[in-house]
């Protein structure tokens, strides 16, 4: 099982983030642990998980449904498809994950930068959800914003930036 998690994690990190690994801490402690407070919205965590599922499945229409508008969303579905057995195992692991909200003061790494979560990042219509993905050394932060219709949408900008950075490294 441990080797399976390593393979799944490696596939996730290489395929989705292009080898760029976000980091997270709370009050100088690493890794970030789930907050004791209940989720501000179970739906926000579900949307964050569905976002990763859509990336793994290379489902651009699904990404467009789940994310804030971004002309570069297609970058997240580029590249080779995962072998069916790896994809199946990855999706099984993903469906067992519970996301939790970051709290004010948490330090997270997004697109290669350390960022302290402030009150504006976790206001009534904004959330930072933490996902402990299999094989990832630390939970992965996902930014969400509530739409005018009241639905949570992922801000895919940090993932697009990570994909672009990985693509540039491959070109060098």
In words, what does this structure look like?
- With 172 residues, the protein is α+β, with helices and mostly antiparallel strands.
- The chain has one domain.
- It has helices spanning 2-16, 42-57, 60-66, 84-94, 157-171; strands at residues 24-25, 100-101, 107-110, 113-116, 126-131, 140-146, 152-154.
- It has a 4-stranded antiparallel beta sheet, covered by helices on one side.
- The longest helix has 16 residues, at 42-57.
- The protein is globular.
SSE pattern:
HEHHHEEEEEEH
Please report the total strand number as a whole number: 7
Q: Number of domains in the coordinates?
A: 1
Largest sheet: 4 strands, antiparallel
**Mean pLDDT score, rounded?**
79
CA-based shape: globular
* Distance between the amino and carboxyl termini: 36 Å
- Coarse structural class: alpha+beta
CA-based gyration radius: 15 Å
Which spans have pLDDT < 50 for at least 5 consecutive residues?
A: 1-41
Tally the helices: what do you get?
Answer: 5
Strands of the biggest beta sheet: in what spatial order? 2-5-6-7
Portion of residues in beta strands equals 15-25%
Helix amount: 25-40%
Q: Summary?
A:
This protein has one domain. It has helices at residues 2-16, 42-57, 60-66, 84-94, 157-171, and strands at 24-25, 100-101, 107-110, 113-116, 126-131, 140-146, 152-154.
Helix and strand layout, with pairings?
Layout: H1 2-16, E1 24-25, H2 42-57, H3 60-66, H4 84-94, E2 100-101, E3 107-110, E4 113-116, E5 126-131, E6 140-146, E7 152-154, H5 157-171
Keywords summarizing the entry:
disordered N terminus; alpha+beta; about 170 residues; globular; 3-stranded antiparallel beta sheet; 4-stranded antiparallel beta sheet; about 15% strand
């Amino acid at each position: 099982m441990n080797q399976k998690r390593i393979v799944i994690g490696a596939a996730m990190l290489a395929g989705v983030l292009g080898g760029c690994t976000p980091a997270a801490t709370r009050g100088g402690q690493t890794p970030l642990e789930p907050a004791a407070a209940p989720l501000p919205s179970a739906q926000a965590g579900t949307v964050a998980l569905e976002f990763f599922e859509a990336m793994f499945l290379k489902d651009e229409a699904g990404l467009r449904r789940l994310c804030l508008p971004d002309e570069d969303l297609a970058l997240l579905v580029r590249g080779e498809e995962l072998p069916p057995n790896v994809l199946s195992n990855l999706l099984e692991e993903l469906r067992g994950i519970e996301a939790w909200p970051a709290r004010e003061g948490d330090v997270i790494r997004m697109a290669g930068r350390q960022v302290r979560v402030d009150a504006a990042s976790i206001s009534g219509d904004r959330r930072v959800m933490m996902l402990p993905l299999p094989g990832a050394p630390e939970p992965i932060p996902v930014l969400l914003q509530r739409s005018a219709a009241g639905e949570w949408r992922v801000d895919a900008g940090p993932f697009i930036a990570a994909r672009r950075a990985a693509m540039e490294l491959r070109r060098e």
